[in-house]
Design goal:
single chain; Rossmann fold; alpha/beta; 213 residues; four-stranded mixed sheet; globular; eight-stranded mixed sheet; 14 strands
Amino acid sequence: MNSVAIIDYGMGNLHSIAKALEHVAGGAQVQITREPRRILAAARVVFPGVGAIGHCMEELRRLELVGVIREAAATRPLLGVCLGMQALLEFSEENEGTPALGLIPGRVRRFPEGLRDAAGERLKVPHMGWNQVQQRPHPLWAGIPQDSRFYFVHSYYAEPAQEAHVAGRTDYGLTFASAIGRDNLFAVQFHPEKSQTVGLRLLANFLAWDGTV
C-alpha cells in the first residue's frame, strides 16, 4: 500500500498538511506519527515544521528522531516543508547558530535588513504571502506552470552549497533557493498545503514520485 508518514515533533501545521495530502491521496494511507517504527514503515515521509530551528533540533533529539529522519532520507522519498527544509541543511544562523541534519550541504541565513523590491519599496521580514517560484526540472513540478505562486512565511532562507541541489528560486530583495533536492529528497520553503491548486498538485506529485530524478 502507498503510505505516507508525517513526522510529528510538535512543530508543524500537521493537520493542515495531512488534510491536503488526504485530499490528493487516492488510496494512499496518511498518518501523523512520531513513532520510529511507523515512520520507517511508510513508503514516503513528510518532514514539516514551523518555528525556530533550535527548538526543532532539540525536539528531534529528545524524541530520538534524528537517526530516523536520516534513515528515512536514505531509503525512500522524503519531502521537507518550511522549517523541515531548513533542517535538512548543515547549519542555520538562527538561535545564535544551530547545527542541523546535514543531509544537503549548505547553510540557512537570515534575510538582511533593508531589502527592497525592484521598484525600490522596502520589504518586510518575515517574507509573508504569495510569491513566484522559478522552477528547475524535477518530477515534483509536473503539471505546475513555471513561475507559479506559492504561499511563504519565513525570516530565514536556504543557501545550498551546490547549485545542482537548487530545484527552485524566488526573488525577495535577493534571489534565494525556495526548493532544494538531491536524489530522493525534495524540500520547499513555501507551504504547499496553503498554496491552493499548485500546492495540491505538488503534494500529488510527491505521492506518485518513486524518488528518482
